[in-house]
Design goal:
This protein is of the alpha/beta class and 298 residues long. The protein has eleven helices and ten strands. Helices cover 44% and strands 15% of the residues. Pathway: Lipid metabolism; fatty acid beta-oxidation.
């Protein structure tokens, strides 16, 4: 397996690659190959501009770090994420023009500034998706607005039974622009329910989220139960070939946004290289011998 031979008693441990450590996230190695990234900004984890920058730095770092094979994303405190911290948002500043004629703001300059801000925000969350390592979200409490955006960019989604979800943006006078409207409908596969939830900002619980396909597991025990379930899945994933895991994620992301024919052509090209991996005969030998296989880090 990809995990090192370090004793499990030495975990959890600080994540040494990220320096300086982020201010609004707790990041630690929970086990060999398993990195736990927790939102850590007050009881409800309202999202700030600093978190946008830190999220991008965290995932750009771990994406190429051989210490990390799988990521678990959670939130500390009473909730996973209550959404955007409007008080700390830069939107008010960006929506004003500080040009030569402040009494007559230039809509074009305002638009350029706002688009740059939105693009930066989108890139931060998309860094989870572009990271070729599996990301499991384990949520509890309130998951509003940006909290849903975050979950949509992860590969596997678990939630505590008491969690509450809401695509909240219409209630503050805008449409969601960080990924929910693009990813959520494709995740649930039901256009009508996706539009209803996005247009009404209706809250929905974990059981409904499971029923419509947004979640794959509902857990008990609050945050601890959701995180424990995610870590158990992560422990299974780190025993798999990292070449196979990353290839599967990449091919499924491509398939989501392309036709079946395009997806088949893509995977045939992709696997013309990946089928040459030494992991394949190793995995086959392990299956036949019923022995655990240790794959080289990637």
């Amino acid at each position: 397996m990809t995990a090192s031979s370090s004793s499990s008693s030495s975990y959890p441990r600080p994540y040494p690659t990220l320096n300086p450590p982020p201010s609004d996230f707790a990041v630690k190695l929970e086990a060999p190959g398993v990195l736990h990234v927790s939102l850590s900004r007050g009881k409800l984890n309202p999202w700030s501009h600093t978190m946008t920058l830190e999220m991008r730095r965290i995932f750009d770092t771990l994406a190429t770090d051989p210490l990390v094979d799988v990521v678990v994303l959670s939130g500390e405190g009473r909730a996973f994420c209550a959404g955007l911290d409007v008080g700390s948002s830069q939107l008010a500043d960006l929506a004003s023009d500080e040009g030569e004629e402040p009494a007559q703001p230039d809509p074009a300059r305002i638009a350029f500034g706002l688009k740059q801000h939105i693009d930066e925000f989108q890139a931060s969350l998309t860094s989870m998706e572009k990271c070729m390592k599996p990301v499991i979200s384990a949520v509890h409490g309130i998951v509003f607005g940006l909290g849903v955006d975050l979950m949509c960019a992860t590969d596997i989604r678990y939630a505590d039974e008491e969690s509450r979800f809401c695509i909240k943006e219409v209630d503050i006078g805008l449409c969601a622009d960080i990924g929910s409207l693009q990813r959520f409908p494709k995740i649930v596969g039901n256009d009508s329910i996706a539009r209803e939830l996005a247009m009404t900002a209706r809250e929905f619980g974990s059981e409904e989220a499971l029923r419509i396909g947004f979640l794959s597991k509902v857990t008990k025990g609050g945050r601890e139960g959701a995180v424990a379930a995610a870590l158990a899945t992560a422990a299974l994933l780190v025993t798999k070939s990292p070449v196979a895991l990353r290839s599967t994620k990449q091919v499924m992301l491509h398939a989501r946004d392309h036709s079946v024919a395009e997806g088949l052509d893509y995977v045939s090209t992709w696997n013309s290289a990946m089928l040459q991996s030494r992991d394949i005969p190793k995995a086959m030998a392990g299956a036949l011998s019923k022995q655990k296989i240790r794959f080289s880090r990637l």
